[in-house]
What we know:
The chain is an alpha/beta fold. It has 13 helices and 12 strands. The radius of gyration is 38 Å and the shape is globular. It starts with a helix and ends with a helix.
Amino acid sequence: MAEADVTNRxxxxxxxxxxEPQGVREEQTPRTDAEGHGExxxxxxxxxxxxxxxxxxxxxAPIEEPVVSPHPYAxxxxxxxxxxxxSGHARRDTLLYLDGVNKSFDGFKAINKLSLVxxxxxxxAIIGPNGAGKTTMMxxxxxxxxxxxxxxxFNGDVDLTHHDEAAIAxxxxxxxxxxxxxxxxxxxxxxIRLSLAGPRSVLEALFHRKDQAERDRIDAILETTxxxxxxxxxxxxxxxxxxxxxxxxxxxxxxxxxxxxDEPVAGMTDAETEETARLLREIARTRSVVVVxxxxxxxxxxxxxxxxLHEGSVLAEGPLDQVSxxxxxxxxYLGR
Length: 336
């Protein structure tokens, strides 16, 4: 009798199925009631991904497991390697890169965690009070002084702390000291010729046969340094400002990529100071220049990024107006 009842209901079930939307149709599951009669009840619909609660989605998401080293020392080495790789990427596009540099003399910390980056083709002005570490910084860059710690890189990957002064100069770093050093008993032109890049002795430089390329090179340097009309004069006859220009020209003859200039306008007239600013801006079109200077009007004429040092570290950095308005710079350097 039960089978007959199920058979009799089957056509109606099929008709009902035609009017049920897809995904909502209820499956008929036989169930026995208290009297033993069979009856239908809806079966649970399968859960769809859209209807899953957020907790379920989080449980289904892949879990990234932290890198666990079999030994803590190996983990430390891995972290150091990753930090070193990141540092290498950071300095790759720079010409001069100093990071965390320290230097002490008999307990006095001349350089204290100094970090400085100079880009290719950039001119940077360095200011700061006496004893701020400006000269020591240049000594470290040129190999005259070894830092106690920190990184000093040139051209992306050349570690300057592993080279001496002569090697660093040959790599393309030229330095002009505050007091001009020229061959006063030689002509201006001979001073430039003696400084031309190349492994030659003084006699070879003065008496070798000059080719057209060398003449053109000397002419270009004399024009840049405003000394074309002085080329046949002895260097001793030049004014103080012109001697400064001649020494800059002697550095240009070595074709450096980076030129370090220490107080180039000290003792110059106002006219010479203005002309020196124009000269350095012209030089910075083809190479990087770092200028250490106290004359704020001259620094303003340069119109470049300024770094103020104090007690061996960077106190402030940015455009001159921003740096000169910094209360810390005013207090320790510019005064009120």
